[in-house]
Amino acid sequence: MQRRTARMLTAGAMALTAALTLSACGSGFSGSGSGDATGGAGKLTSSDKDLTVLIGSSGDAETAAVKSAAAAWSKSSGTGVSVQPANNLDQQLAQGFASGKPADVFYVSTSALTGYASNGSLLAYGDDLSNKGDFYPTLTKSFTVDDQLYCAPKDFSTLALFINTKDWKAAGLTDSDVPTTWDQLASVAKKLTQDGRVGLTMSPQYERLGAFMAQAGGALTNADQTKATVDSAANVTALDYVKGLLQDGSTKFSSDLGESWGGDAFGKDKAAMTVEGNWLTGAMSSSYPGVDYKVVQLPKGPKGAGTLQFTNCWGIAKDSPNQKAALDFVEKMTSTTQQLSFAKAFGVMPSVESAASKWKQEYPQYAAFLDEADSARGVPNKTGSADVIADFDSKLGSLESTDTKTLLEGVQKNMAAALKG
Fold first, then answer.
1. Same domain, 30 and 94
2. In this predicted structure, which of 10-24, 92-106, 188-202, 397-411 has the lowest mean pLDDT?
3. How many CB atoms lie within 10 A of CB 135?
4. Are residues 177 and 76 in the same domain?
5. Which burial class, exposed, middle or buried, applies to 308 when counting CB atoms under 10 A from its CB (0-12, 13-18, 19+)?
6. Cα–Cα distance between 261 and 374 in angstroms, integer?
7. Beta strands of 219-332 (E only): which ranges?
8. Can you give the pTM of this predicted structure?
9. Are residues 283 and 313 located together in one domain of the fold?
10. Were 346 and a residue from 62, 132, 196, 378 both cysteine, which residue would form a disulfide, CB within 3.0 to 4.6 Å?
11. What is the average per-residue pLDDT within 378-384?
12. How far apart are CA 219 and CA 331, in angstroms?
């Protein structure tokens, strides 16, 4: 699966694939895997069997990089390993779990984590990681269920503001005009709305607009995801701000520009700015190499900086006969050196803080993404929350003509019900 495509999947699609996976496992959401899925260094299984690794690859570059890293690990460890890029990761995982012969190691999304954890498919090996303290806290939180860290964050992405530098200059704007507040963003969006393009675009999704909620001090749930907070005054403020941008014509959703996501609208110069993740940099290089742009941090809102983060982790199967080797493999894949190598090979952002300085030195043009790590917020991962977000996304396209408070009150009821199970 392409990285851009993976990030642009609606929550509904993710929820559907997760649901299919879980139903194939033959168990529901009611059980808890936290008690019997725990590893512990002395409890890990061990055998002389080769490791099998199933990845949801972003493309040939990622596949080649992971296979090369796995081969190097195999040579040093003495354990054989085979890496398979999945055609449909969720479906193939479901088949493996259903047969009792899953891959030993595999990619896991935040939307699928809770279901896999609750039905006992995953080994909760987080406490056994020698580099546990090196991961960004916001990332480990995304893979923690019932106070247990289930898996090591593989890498991550955040949202930032992309600016077409040619359009920027043509509008008479300079570096001093780069927006750092909502008011400034609204001002430059108006100035950039000319010559048949709008100043700002983004996809009509919580996975983009949620950044404004964070900047206003809002979120869909409280910190431990036990209470829905969708209809908070902060979230009303955030969506009303975006609604205002839409109503004054300086902003349009990508769907209103005839594009499936903000990246294509930006690349085709239908908009001078967009809110997107670092996966867009690869798409710009491959699809729109002639477009000059820069990336800056998202403007601060009433409550300061805020963005969303997107991540996967390295899952280890509870049924793996060689959990000890699997853990050693994961530690190698998430080491500082290896993550920097992956970043160079296929453009990801390392999940360990020890790689931050080196990464920003090598990619100063993209530093804004990593500079926002401390203010990043993960998408809710509780069972059922993906379905709620999918429904929310389906309504956001008509935000310009919708009463914000009424919209959020409806989502609040759904999220509250989901959190109650």
1. yes
2. 10-24
3. 25
4. no
5. buried
6. 26
7. 251-253, 271-277, 293-296, 307-316
8. 0.86
9. no
10. 62
11. 91
12. 32
